[in-house]
Amino acid sequence: MPTSLRPLTLRAIEAAHLVLEHFTQTQGYREGIVGMPLYLHSMIAFAAVFLVKMSYCWHVIGITIDPAQRTRPLIQAHIKLLRDCRAGANHMVFSMANGFERMLKQIHLPAPAIIQKRIYSFLTHRDIQLKDIWYNKR
Fold first, then answer.
1. C-alpha separations of 18 from 12, 13, 25, 86 in Å
2. Distance between CA 100 and CA 98 in Å, rounded?
3. What pTM does this model have?
4. Integer Cα distance of 53 and 123 in angstroms
5. Nearest CA among 63, 67, 70, 17 for reference residue 44
6. Which of 16, 19, 40, 71 is a plausible cystine mate for 67, CB 3.0–4.6 Å?
7. Residues of the chain above pLDDT 70, percent
8. Are 71 and 51 in contact (CB under 8 A)?
9. Three-state secondary structure along the chain?
10. How far apart are CA 115 and CA 61, in angstroms?
11. How far apart are CA 17 and CA 92, in angstroms?
12. What digits encode the pLDDT tens for the residues 25-42?
């Protein structure tokens, strides 16, 4: 990743953390999460998915936030908040909680060296393929 994009990436990650922190820590939202507009639920879902899906490669691109220390506990707190809501069994907050929980179970944070090796081998393989395509077109 170009160094010029790293501050923007960090801002996006911080914004997603702040969205989840706002809804888990602000009392008014905690109590009214069942009756809030759909776009707010979408914002929560997007922030959680973004953090979970991208957290495994932050250290490779120079982001120093530890997902095991900050992201995972925050999403677990949000799952608890959603599960504690009083609503019908088919309300979307329960589907969101189930989805977040499934994502957390599927994502295992491997050791940084393993990730770097995987990304390097992927990029090297991709570059070789691109070179083959480039030279075959000539």
1. 10, 9, 10, 24
2. 6
3. 0.72
4. 19
5. 17
6. 71
7. 77
8. yes
9. CCHHHHHHHHHHHHHHHHHHHHHHHCHHHHHCCCCCCHHHHHHHHHHHHHHHHHHHHCHHHCCCCCHHHHHHHHHHHHHHHHHCCCCCCCCHHHHHHHHHHHHHHHCCCCCHHHHHHHHHHHHHHHHHHHHHHHHHHC
10. 11
11. 21
12. 888 887 788 889 999 999
Query: Please, what sign has the CA dihedral across residues 69, 109, 74, 17?
Result: positive
Task: Give yes or no for a contact between 96 and 45, defined as CB atoms under 8 angstroms apart.
Answer: yes
Q: What is the pLDDT of residues 73-82, one digit of tens each?
A: 999 999 999 9
Distances (CA, A) of 103 to 18, 75, 89, 97, 135: 20, 10, 21, 10, 41
Assigned token pair, 137: 């077109």
In the chain, the amino acid numbered 22 is H
